[in-house]
Amino acid sequence: MLEDVIRQELDQNNIPQTIKIATLMGDREFRWDKAIYMPAGLSGFADNNIFALANFPSEISNCFKLLQCLTDPELAFIVAPYNMESGILAAEDIDPAITIHNIAPENLAIVLIVTLQKPDGDDAIEMTVNLRAPILIDTARQTAFQIHLKKPQYDYRHPLSA
Fold it and tell me: The organism sits in which domain of life (predicted)?
């Protein structure tokens, strides 16, 4: 397992096992052996390949997570775990990518990047998710891949229900 290989490498070379980063939620400590490797990075951030997921403090929200780049502390995204049973993403559209990346169904997690916007003249904050470019995570191998769905039914700014 990737986690064991990383832990062994860290131990053998006396490399720090954690990294402390000043995140959107304050200082957080991340374990290198829990990192998620994204071989192709994210759209627009191809050179950033090592990320970690962090929970928001419970008083903020447990519906969202922070996708934090471990090699560039300034790069982080709010993500929403995708509910597979919602059916918003059609299986026939994501199954080819799952097969190509050899992700077993029991190891699949999907997150969607969240955008926060404040419309002009409005105090409310509008939250949307990017359905066009979901992130597939292989939880067993700790790898992730952002895929790009071509169908127009998948909106870049799909509103989150209140």
Answer: Bacteria
